[in-house]
Amino acid sequence: MMDFKRLSGGTVSPDGKYFLYSQTTIDVANNKGNADLYVINLATKTTRQLTDTPFSEFEAQWAGSSIYFLSTESGNVDIWKMNADGSGKSKVSDVKGIEGFKVSSDEQSVITLQSVQIKKTVHEEYPDLPKANARIEDDLMYRHWASWDDYKVQHLFHYALKSGTISGEGTDLLDGEQISAVLPPFGGMGSVTFTPDNQAVVYATKKLRGKEFATSTNSELYKVDLKTKATSCITCGDQFNGYDLHPSFSSKGDLAWLSMERNGFEADKNDIILKTAAGEVKNLTKKHDIT
Fold first, then answer.
1. Pairing relationship of beta strands 18-27 and 32-41 according to DSSP bridges
2. Any idea what DSSP says for residue 15?
3. Which of 103, 99, 222, 96 is CA-nearest to residue 168?
4. Which residues pair with 222 in a beta bridge?
5. Chain centre distance of CA 188
6. Are β-strands 57-63 and 143-144 bridged in parallel, bridged antiparallel, or unpaired?
7. Cβ neighbours for 291, distance < 8 A, ≥ 6 positions apart
8. Is residue 138 one of the residues assigned to a domain?
9. H or E element, residue 202
């Protein structure tokens, strides 16, 4: 199994000519993996390797004619940029703690996923007990699958992309909220997307806490304005009661996403829902099971 190349990502270029993906090779002797980026010419079916470094490049995405990606080259996880042929590589971010990102199609804005601490650890609560190996819990979810609650949530931060770089602290789009912008423990930027005009972001999460969070599968799609931070719920109400995830816009402003009908059924049938720019809602897979 360790000899197999591991593929991840996969996005088509805006002009529809290239397919971009990441491929990870496992070094068993050194107990580590290394990811590099590749593109496939969809017309000729030829593959070109874009990066070949001892560092990992991953979460690659297109914006305009450029490719943006995360890399560990600087010693931290940073956003980098390069041309579609792999040339002109440069570091975009000078921000610590980036766990994911999206770049607007006009290359004017960057949304990052970063952790925000919302509760004190035992050592912070009781600094006179530095050797304490304990947790103080009075509600769920202190453990989710194989992940312990680390007293933090993941928020979306907005940065203006100026002269090809971002820096500073950014604007917390969920400031004051004690919930993650993506569903823990495995959620990521696949459920975050810019609107076609790049003036807002849509994300999927459950704005619930404790036992209510643990027993519900009713995630919602939220839209937040990048200038005002005003937030509205797209799927709240009686129509969408299960998971609503992976929002994606067409160039015309139609919004599609994956949706489950019932709350509490995490393995329910997944449907593709389309909400047109005019507000009409359609179930594109009502008669088909693509789950």
1. antiparallel
2. T
3. 96
4. 203, 233
5. 3
6. unpaired
7. 267, 269, 270
8. no
9. strand 200-205
- Show the tokens assigned to 258: 């994956």
Residue 70 domain-assigned (yes or no): yes
Within-domain flag for 23 = yes
Say which residues have a Cβ less than 8 Å from residue 125's Cβ, sequence separation at least 6.
Answer: 136
Backbone phi and psi for residue 21, each to the nearest 5 degrees, phi listed first: -150, 170
**pLDDT tens-digit readout, 81-91:** 999 999 999 99
Average pLDDT over residues 146-174: 95
61 near 51, Cβ under 8 Å?
no
Q: How far is CA 236 from the centre of its chain?
A: 21
For Cα atoms 233, 207, 225, give the angle at the middle one, nearest 5 degrees: 40
189 cis-preceded (ω within 30 degrees of 0): no
**Summary mean pLDDT of the chain:** 96
3-class DSSP state of 190: helix
Task: Tell me the β-bridge partners of 244.
Answer: 259
Q: Is residue 171 part of a domain?
A: no
**What's the pTM value of the predicted model, to 2 decimals?**
0.94
Which pLDDT score is estimated for 3?
82
Range of the domain at 36: 1-91
- 45, burial (CB in 10 Å: exposed 0-12, middle 13-18, buried 19+): exposed
3-state secondary structure of 44: coil
Q: Among residues 6, 65, 15, 9, which one has the least CA distance to residue 42?
A: 15
pLDDT at 268 over 90: yes
The string of pLDDT tens digits covering residues 39-54 is: 999 999 999 999 999 9
Specify whether the CB–CB gap between 237 and 220 falls below 8 A.
no
Into how many domains does the chain fold? 1
Between the alpha carbon of residue 89 and those of residues 39, 164, 288, the distances in Å are 16, 11, 44
Q: How far is CA 54 from the centre of its chain?
A: 25
